[in-house]
Amino acid sequence: MAATKTVLSAFVWSAAILLAATGMALAQYPNRPISIMVGFSAGGTSDVAARILAERMSQSLRTPVIVENRPGAGGSVAAAATARATPDGYAIMLSDPGAFAINPIAFPQNARYDSLTDFVPIALVGQSPLVLVVPANRPFTTIAALNAHLRSHAGTANYASSGNAGISQFGAELYLKRAGDLAALHIPYRGGAPMMEALYKGEVDFGVAVLASAVALIEGGAVRAVALAAPSATPAVANVPLLERLGFPNSTMTSWVIMIGPRGMPPDVVARLNAAINDAISDPGVRQRLLSAGIETYPPATPAETGDYLKGEVERYRAYQTELGDRLTR
């Protein structure tokens, strides 16, 4: 009996010490640098948003917040690393639709994770519409002219994307499908910045880019925007016609950026990060910097609201994939 009491007492004390240590760790969070993983190279939408956020979060959390670029497989490399990370709040990810919704549906062999069970939603950040762009030296200046070029150059026409299985390829194939089941050779690049470089150098015929990756080159005249996949005009490219008004109904498509973390993160840590992100996107200066980069912030949302939004997006992209059939994989 005495031995049993001794073992029980030791167990109780061990549990108490563990709980105390956990509580202390949460109370001290964060006490070392936080890494925001981005699934693309520097200069893309997620990267731009992450760097703006990291600067403000470093101030509010009083610890360094760094951006870690892990490009590959349409964001799936970074997403898989995030899913495997220790769930302590020091490794999180600013995800986009490619990693969270497109890859798991269209390329399950690339996405070795379950979007809805392997991650915890943290906060909504912002969104940027897709824009159809062509090199400035190409003769086609309208979507009608581009369609005609694609029809007359079947077999040789091509387009750039920010990577296999990403939203850029997804948007381009959806456009080609809805323009009359057109075809063009897909040339993937490792992120939005290299994709845009190929476009302004005239190496490809067109590309569907996230506005945040393209806005500076559009404004500078290095590339030409022929259509915007947004429900209404966007201040950054106010004169670009909307796909919805060019004979492409239900063509609104945006690339969102949403913060997620590995499953199992303590609720207090999730709440702390959520508050820091909502503080950042509520700041007029941060909002303006993001808007100037082509990213419109969402209203502040709770982790639960973020999770509901992500579930809806997965279903939306599942419907898109049904429409596309095998266009992404053939």
From TrEMBL:
CDD domains: PBP2_Bug_TTT (cd07012). InterPro entries: BUG, Bug_dom1. It comes from the Bacteria. Belongs to the UPF0065 (bug) family. This is Tripartite tricarboxylate transporter substrate binding protein. It comes from Phreatobacter stygius.
